[in-house]
Design a protein that fits this description.
- The complex is a heterodimer.
- Chain A is of the alpha+beta class.
- Chain A has 18 helices and 27 strands.
- In chain A, α8 packs across α9.
- The longest helix of chain A is centred in the C-terminal third of the chain and has 47 residues.
- Chain A starts with a helix and ends with a helix.
- Chain B is mainly alpha-helical.
- Helix content of chain B is about 75%, strand content about 0%.
- Chain B has two domains: about 60 residues, no CATH class; about 230 residues, MetI-like fold (Orthogonal Bundle).
- Classes of the chains: A alpha+beta, B mainly alpha.
């Protein structure tokens, strides 16, 4: 007894120490939320990947000032935008408001400012900066429409002005906002409003072409306008121009990365030497948080190829793997105007140091925030690094460490799944892929499991099937052959059972079937309710037991009430709406007929989806067509039955039935809108009543 | 002449062996009695056995062997079948899904189109009907010629191809799509072209069926209260042309599952790009006549045969008359 107690106390103390020592500090100290996204694009809270460590505001910058008594004055940062880091981890800030570039060393001590007060080295509102491996400093000198080059010591060397090539065009603007230079000295310049893409300039200043222009995309409205508008009207329309890259950066391998603002699709791109985007063209960013389009103003790439970008719209910082999978999101714009370390008011540029420190410039607060990766982020980075190299089993160690800190991290589950897959432990892989809800990985792993099973058992299965088939054949032909086929009449067993079994007649011979519902006393309300309940149960069954490969919703977020509201309620509204419309349009069907008929029309869904759900667990992604085909068959079959029901039970001409169906659907919309209104108003009234009641109670007593 | 009553003989209480003997004896007698009928069917039966039954049985036999046309076949049991469903990645990941997609769209789609067109054409007066039905039937005969004359031009991969040019003009796409060589477009193109040429024998049979429906039936139905064309189709036309529809369905299934050359003709490559348009028949062709693995190819053919058989069963269940109706 005493020993047990002592053990308990020790465990409690260890737990307490662990809780205080490890669990808390990294979470509590950051002023912003951090997330990762799961396979369904839903947010999952994650430990902070980066914590803010210091702020650079430029109050240590002494500049020569002939008007000051000391000959120097303090000129802090003003509207800092582009950031760059050189090979010694020195930081360069494009200090737009002060027309200069500011250099800091690796310990964030001020080194020098770049940009002369007069002459060719004078900068005008520079927005971007880049340092190549030789230490040459390239400045996107926006105001002067050029790229200026400075030596390591800050001496002006040369500049690249507007390309004179015919191809470049005389109307096209050249106002560099960001620049990157590859090893051969080729400049990649992002220009303001540069919808044709990055401008490539050779080391000698010759125009080499545009790289990776965005696409305007297809717009039906625009097409119609082109057809119906006159020339004059068209010229008044705003031109449809593709988005322009706002920021460019280059990695050690010479791959060029761009971030595009004012779009929500394919915002970040990575171009190989052929000018082809090798990142998936999907929606980046956080759709739940932003208002309007995302504004990826800055992009940074580290030596492993991890892409970090910042959305000025929300102030969030996103980190992506080289494959474009999101690692984490953190940060966010401050809700108040109060300055706080780590809260970015208007993000502009971003850079990442070789030692992992992350730097983000804040245009409105006139400072640069420095973030340090936490232990969690470091683990994730190491895991991703090994993972991207294809060394899955080595990365597994890190992934499990990551999982210990954040059990909801899908990427880690996936990583462990890939490791198990690589080790040919497919059962284990399936388990992890299921946790990560990774359909593709699950499908691949399952393929191997199924294959192994087939390899072992297929011969036996074939033999058994052939034997059964032969026996069946013999029995049918030789023994039962002479007997008349006996068809059971379920109506004689039980009225309800008869009504339920009648549904098979309805779905195979709908015209006769629905006719007898209206005029032949077949079917009953109770049977209809049972069928609708079964259909709903089928829906729930499919939600829970369909193979992960074919799931379109997150199984962990299924809400029964919500499912009932989106499944049974529309059906009920249809019945009411259709009955109302049909009675106006001289339909002969009674409410009972519409109700029973609509229920019977759902039967194909039940009889197809239940077996299909079970079979889906034997299929892989390769056989997806099988699944979608039968799913579509069930939907089409139900739709056809609804249509046949409409003109059969109301004795319509087929051409009368179509407008009735359309009107019924419109009526459904009206009823749902009215219903919503009534519910909303009722809610308000009850709220008012309770408030009044409380008020009276409070005042009177 | 008095016919002997052999039924009575069988029912007599004899021992099992003598019963069997008597049964065989009576069977022989019955055959002899119907000898003229057997003579009449003999030419067909002999041809069927030699040219169809024996090859099929031979293929089934070969499917249990390893046979490369040089060495004599070596019995390997069910290994070919096991290999087909486990080791043959191309079959499981491309051929089977492709064939399924192709068959479920082209089969029912072509079939419905055939019936609809047959019915529509039957509504037209004589001369135009003959001309139009010929026009619709032509593609199924002249598919190969039409392929190069029309479809390869329409689906040409550069910007002057008809479809590309049209879509570029609309602004739907901004660079030409290489329709017949791209992995995602080859299959849709194959489906479109096959649907276009699917008005074959089944279509003709159905049209003959629709035309042969007794017009008195329609008149009688009108008097009985049929109100519109749809009811006419449901209650008169379809029941009357059921045999032709069954024939059409079986033809559609067989034709669809046996289509193979279309992907190769369109893309001009064998195998089709990344197996995007590889169907079962291509696969059989591949193993039989490129790799000379006859036993394995035979096993694939047997699987195809089983699939065709099961699909025909389904068609029978849907369209075959059940006696009581």
């Amino acid at each position: 007894m005493g020993r047990q107690l002592r053990r308990l106390i020790i465990v409690a103390i260890i737990g307490l120490v662990w809780y205080l020592g490890i669990g808390v500090p990294s979470l509590a100290s950051v002023p912003y939320p951090s997330f990762s996204f799961d396979a369904w694009g839903q947010r999952v809270v994650a430990p902070a990947p980066y914590e803010p460590i210091r702020l650079i505001d430029g109050y240590d910058i002494m500049q020569e000032d002939p008007w000051s008594l000391t000959g120097f004055s303090i000129v802090p940062l003003s509207q800092p935008q582009g950031l760059a880091v050189d090979s010694q981890d020195h930081l360069y800030i494009a200090d737009t408001g002060n027309n200069r570039i500011v250099q800091y060393d690796q310990d964030f001590n001020f080194v020098r400012t770049i940009g002369d007060s007069s002459g060719k080295g004078r900068l005008s509102r520079p927005r971007g900066v880049f340092v190549d491996q030789d230490g040459l400093i390239y400045v996107a000198d926006t105001g002067n429409s050029r790229v200026a080059v400075f030596s390591e010591d800050g001496e002006f060397v040369k500049d690249y002005g507007r390309p004179g090539s015919q191809v470049f065009g005389s109307q096209y603007r050249f106002a560099p906002i960001s620049v990157a230079v590859d090893r051969r000295g080729t400049l990649y310049v992002a220009t303001e409003g540069g919808y044709r893409g990055l401008v490539q300039i050779s080391p000698l200043g010759q125009f080499m072409g545009f790289l990776g222009g965005n696409k305007a995309g297809f717009d039906l409205l625009w097409l119609l306008k082109q057809w119906f508008f006159t020339e004059e009207q068209l010229s008044r329309e705003a031109r449809r121009l593709p988005g322009s890259p706002g920021s460019v950066v280059i990695d050690d391998k010479g791959l060029v990365y761009t971030a595009t603002i004012s779009t929500n699709h394919a915002q970040i791109k990575r171009f190989n030497l052929g000018g082809i985007n090798t990142l998936p063209e999907k929606d980046y960013g956080d759709p739940f948080f932003r208002a309007g389009t995302s504004m990826f103003t800055g992009i940074a790439v580290d030596s492993q190829g991890l892409i970090t970008t910042v959305d000025a719209n929300t102030g969030q910082i996103f980190q992506y793997t080289p494959n474009g999978d999101l690692l984490f999101v953190f940060g966010g714009r401050g809700l108040t105007q109060i300055e706080r370390l780590g809260v970015i008011n208007q993000a502009a540029g971003i850079a990442i140091r070789y030692d992992g420190l992350l730097l983000v410039s804040d245009l409105r607060s006139n400072n640069v925030h420095v973030f340090q990766p936490t232990e969690f982020a470091t683990l994730v980075h190491q895991a991703v690094h090994l993972f991207e190299d294809g060394r899955y089993s080595e990365s597994a160690v890190y992934w499990s460490e990551v999982l210990r800190r954040n059990a909801n991290y899908d990427l880690a589950q996936r990583g462990l799944g890939m490791a198990a897959y690589q080790n040919e432990d497919y059962h284990e892989a399936i388990k992890y892929f299921e946790l990560a809800q990774d359909a593709a990985g699950y499908s691949d792993a399952f393929w191997w499991v199924r294959r192994a099973w087939l390899l072992e058992n297929l011969s036996n299965v074939i033999i058994v099937v052939v034997i059964i088939w032969v026996l069946h054949f013999l029995v049918q032909r030789l023994w039962l052959g002479k007997r008349p086929k006996y068809k059971r009449d379920w109506y004689q067993v039980n009225r309800l059972l008869g009504d339920l079994m009648y549904s098979f007649k309805v779905i195979t011979k709908p015209v006769d079937g629905f006719y007898d519902i209206r005029w032949g006393k077949k079917g009953s309300i109770l049977a209809a309710w049972i069928i609708i309940f079964l259909a709903f149960a089928t829906k729930i069954f499919t939600l829970y037991y369909t193979s992960l490969i074919f799931m379109s919703v997150d199984r962990n977020r299924i809400n029964l009430v919500e499912q009932a509201l989106t499944f049974v309620l529309p059906w009920l509204i249809w019945v009411v709406a259709h009955y109302l419309i049909s009675s106006l349009k001289a339909g002969e069907g009674r409410f009972r007929d519409v109700f029973i008929g609509s229920a019977y029309a759902m039967v194909p869904y039940i009889i197809i989806m239940i077996p299909l759900t079970i079979i889906s667990n034997l299929l892989t992604g390769y056989e997806a067509t099988v699944y979608t085909f039968f799913q579509n068959v069930s939907i089409l079959w139900c739709g056809l039955l609804f249509f046949i029901m409409v003109f059969t039970i109301h004795n319509y001409e087929i051409w009368e039935a179509i407008p009735t169906c359309i009107l019924s659907v419109l009526m459904m919309v009206v009823i749902s809108a009215l219903g919503g209104l009534v519910i909303g108003l009722t809610f308000n009234v009850t709220e008012f009543a309770t408030a009044l009641y409380k008020e009276v109670i409070y005042r009177v007593f | 002449m008095k016919t002997p009553s052999y039924e009575r003989v069988i029912e007599m209480p004899y021992s099992f062996r003598s019963k069997l003997w008597l049964k065989l004896k009576s069977l022989g007698r019955r055959i002899w009695l119907a000898r003229t009928s057997y003579l009449m069917v003999a030419p067909f039966v002999i041809c069927f056995v030699i040219f169809i039954l024996l090859p099929v049985l031979g293929a089934i036999g070969l499917s249990f062997t390893f046979y490369n046309m040089i060495e004599p076949p070596r019995y390997v049991g069910l290994l070919n079948y096991v290999y087909l469903f486990t080791e043959d990645d191309v079959f499981m990941t491309h051929v089977l899904p492709n064939t399924f997609t192709f068959a479920v769209i082209v089969g029912p789609g072509g079939y419905l189109l055939s019936f609809l067109l047959a019915w529509l054409l039957a509504q037209l007066p004589g001369k135009i009907r003959t001309f139009l039905s010929l026009a619709w039937y032509t593609p199924s005969m002249a598919a190969a010629v039409a392929m190069s004359a029309i479809w390869l031009v329409v689906f040409s991969g550069d910007r002057v191809g008809y479809l590309n040019s049209f879509l570029l003009g609309l602004g739907v796409i901004d660079e030409p799509i290489n329709w017949v060589h791209s992995v995602e477009w080859l299959m849709p193109v194959m489906i479109v072209v096959t649907l276009w040429s699917s008005m074959g024998v089944g279509f003709l049979a159905m049209m003959a069926g629709v035309l042969n429906v007794d017009s008195q039936l329609y008149e009688a139905a009108k008097i009985d209260g049929i109100r519109n064309r749809f009811q006419e189709i449901i209650y008169i036309t379809i029941p009357s042309v059921k045999p032709q529809m069954l024939f059409g369905a079986v033809m559609a299934i067989v034709n669809t599952l046996q289509a193979g050359s279309i992907g190769v003709t369109l893309s001009g490559q064998n195998p089709t790009p990344q197996y995007a348009g590889q169907l079962v028949l291509n696969h059989i062709d591949d193993f039989a006549f490129q790799r000379y693995e006859m036993g394995y190819a035979a096993a694939i053919s047997v699987v195809l045969l089983i699939i065709v058989y099961l699909s025909s069963k389904l068609a029978w269940a849907l369209f075959g008359s059940r006696g009581d109706e």
